[in-house]
């Protein structure tokens, strides 16, 4: 993967090094226990919602415990909701009495307590702030999610909200809580480009080193880093900036009493590793309850992740993404200085040899990260004139570490990788993020050049992510054409396989594989693979547009069949 061009390298460094942070969705809505959108979902009148403040008393809140838990999990920063869409400030705001200090019996400022604790424990503190949606304020305007049960849209004067609440509160957050790592804005639909720019300027004028995420605006190119869609793990080749995936542990952000649909620790680690291998950060969410406690199951998961990070953190923090422009079936790759880390997921572990094609660099040694005494024997074969570079590792019978085992390849020279799409153990996954997109009549075509090292029959699958509730037949009304070399087929993609435990696809999307046919490759060599379809599009720029797609094209996968 190419080196990222980052203008302000020094101020974003801490962020790209951190790789793993804690998201905290905590607000007045915790008192209802149905997530942070409950006011909107149930159209709760402002006056009624305000009554929640009378009894809101989260006196079990303990900043020291929260920060210690984040540390224990191996997280390097905390992003907490200072004000969410319900408009309730979880800090002492002079701009509006609708805040936790002035309007609840609790009367304490949790952000102040967190700021002090973070400073003590060396944790970066960051704030989430809902700058556009605010269902409490009579003058906030968003392009879709407004409070229309208390207020009339046509009577709204946006700048009353913007100038008298948003700007003063952002100023309070950046002047009263010490240095803030980043401000995480959200749902900016409808905000003008000028107001978006002004918001960025305001932040930078108060704290020049404070980062701003891309959701500050729905206009393209905003932000020091890109916030992906909720729970969205991008494909390889999609990134143009440092980026982060915000992710839920279960299916909710704000405390949701009935939600025990937790991801397994194993799957969270695989997702984190996948994200790191593409050069991104994982911002993993917890939703504390109305007493101020992080749900027990969340605490348990975070501790288990921490156990894995204690042994394997070196392969995550401060690393760069994989130099290979595709995902591996067995896991993922990260790089730091003279080390390449192979993350082999235990689920995919098979004893015997693991072969990696296109690895040109001579190795000094290979060993297990969680037990450096345990060396791994290897063989390297470089056939320059055929363009063939192979590394073969002899894996122990059992995976040496819990959940996911990391092998360190210590390099004897500078890292060199064949950047081509090469089949790896008979499989190659071609992400749309790396495709050359060409406009052709009504249909676009995506093209990749693929190096096939072994002749034989290959099955070709289309990988898509489908949003829950979307009708497949509506989305794929026309056939698509697929061509490899000179052979081509016309196919109607079906929902052939539904992948339950996808590494990168998650609620509200499902990973679907469609069988596009079998192709015979008669001799090893370089082939062009082209897919023509009305679904093929240029790479989208803004995260929210991308997130809304009913079906996302992810990759085309070639799988060698047993001969
Ligand atoms: C969404 C939701 C919000 C949540 C956020 C987290 O945009 O509106 O409730 O805070 O995503 O990424």
Automatic annotation (TrEMBL):
InterPro entries hit by this protein: FUC_metazoa-typ, GH, Glyco_hydro_29, Glyco_hydro_29_N, Glyco_hydro_b
GO cellular component, one term: lysosome
The entry's keywords: Glycosidase, Hydrolase, Signal
Gene3D superfamilies, per the entry: Glycosidases, Golgi alpha-mannosidase II
One Pfam family matching this protein: Alpha_L_fucos
EC number: 3.2.1.51
Domain of life: Bacteria
Domain Glycoside hydrolase family 29 N-terminal: 7-314
A biological process from GO: glycoside catabolic process
Keyword Signal (UniProt): yes
Function, in words: Alpha-L-fucosidase is responsible for hydrolyzing the alpha-1,6-linked fucose joined to the reducing-end N-acetylglucosamine of the carbohydrate moieties of glycoproteins.
Designated name of the protein: alpha-L-fucosidase
Species, as recorded: Neobacillus niacini
């Amino acid at each position: 993967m190419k080196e990222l061009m980052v203008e302000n390298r020094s101020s974003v460094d801490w962020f790209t090094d951190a790789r793993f942070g804690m998201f905290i969705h905590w607000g007045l809505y915790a008192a209802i226990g149905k997530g942070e959108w409950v006011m909107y979902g149930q159209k709760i009148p402002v006056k009624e919602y305000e009554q929640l403040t009378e009894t809101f008393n989260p006196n079990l809140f303990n900043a020291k415990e929260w920060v210690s838990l984040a540390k224990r999990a191996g997280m390097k920063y905390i992003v907490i909701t200072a004000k969410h869409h319900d408009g309730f400030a979880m800090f002492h705001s002079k701009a509006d009495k609708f805040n936790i200090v002035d309007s609840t019996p609790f009367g304490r400022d949790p952000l102040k307590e967190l700021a002090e604790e973070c400073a003590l424990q060396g944790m970066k503190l960051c704030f989430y702030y809902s700058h556009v949606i605010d269902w409490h304020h009579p003058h906030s305007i968003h392009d879709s999610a407004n409070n229309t049960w208390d207020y009339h849209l046509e009577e709204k004067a946006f700048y009353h909200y913007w100038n008298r609440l948003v700007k003063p509160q952002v100023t309070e957050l950046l002047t009263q809580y010490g240095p803030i790592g980043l401000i995480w804005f959200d749902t900016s639909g409808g905000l003008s480009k000028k107001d978006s720019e002004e918001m960025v300027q305001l932040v930078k004028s108060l704290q020049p080193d404070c980062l701003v995420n891309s959701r500050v605006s729905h206009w393209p190119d905003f932000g020091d880093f890109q916030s992906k869609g909720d729970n969205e793990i991008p494909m390889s080749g999609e990134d143009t900036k440092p980026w982060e995936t915000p992710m839920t542990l279960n299916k909710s952000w704000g405390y949701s009493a009935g939600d025990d649909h937790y991801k397994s620790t194993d799957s969270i680690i695989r997702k984190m590793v996948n994200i790191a291998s593409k050069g991104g950060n994982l911002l993993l969410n917890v939703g504390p309850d109305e007493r101020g406690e992080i749900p027990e199951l969340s605490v348990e998961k975070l501790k288990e992740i921490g156990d894995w990070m204690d042994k394997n953190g070196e392969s995550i923090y401060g690393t760069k993404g994989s130099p290979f422009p595709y995902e591996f079936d067995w896991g993922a790759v990260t790089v730091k200085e003279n080390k390449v880390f192979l993350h082999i997921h235990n689920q995919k572990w098979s004893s015997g040899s693991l072969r990696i094609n296109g690895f040109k660099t001579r190795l000094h040694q290979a060993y297990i990260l969680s037990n450096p005494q345990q060396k791994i024997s290897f063989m390297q074969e470089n056939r320059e004139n055929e363009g063939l570079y192979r590394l073969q590792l002899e894996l122990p019978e059992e995976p040496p570490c819990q959940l996911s085992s990391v092998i360190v390849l210590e390099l004897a020279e500078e890292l060199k990788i064949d950047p081509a799409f090469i089949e790896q153990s008979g499989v190659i996954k071609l992400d749309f993020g790396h495709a050359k997109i060409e406009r052709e009549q009504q249909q676009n075509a995506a093209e990749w050049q693929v190096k096939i090292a072994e002749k034989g029959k290959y099955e070709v699958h289309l990988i898509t992510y489908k949003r829950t509730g979307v009708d497949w037949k509506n989305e794929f009304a026309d056939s698509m054409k697929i061509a490899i070399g000179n052979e081509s087929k016309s196919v109607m993609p079906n929902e052939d396989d539904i992948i339950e435990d996808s590494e990168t696809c998650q609620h509200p999307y499902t990973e679907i594989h469609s069988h596009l046919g079998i192709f015979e490759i008669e001799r090893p060599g370089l082939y062009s693979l082209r897919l023509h379809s009305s679904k093929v599009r240029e790479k989208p720029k803004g995260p929210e547009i991308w997130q809304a797609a009913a079906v996302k094209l992810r990759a085309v996968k070639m799988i060698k069949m047993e001969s």
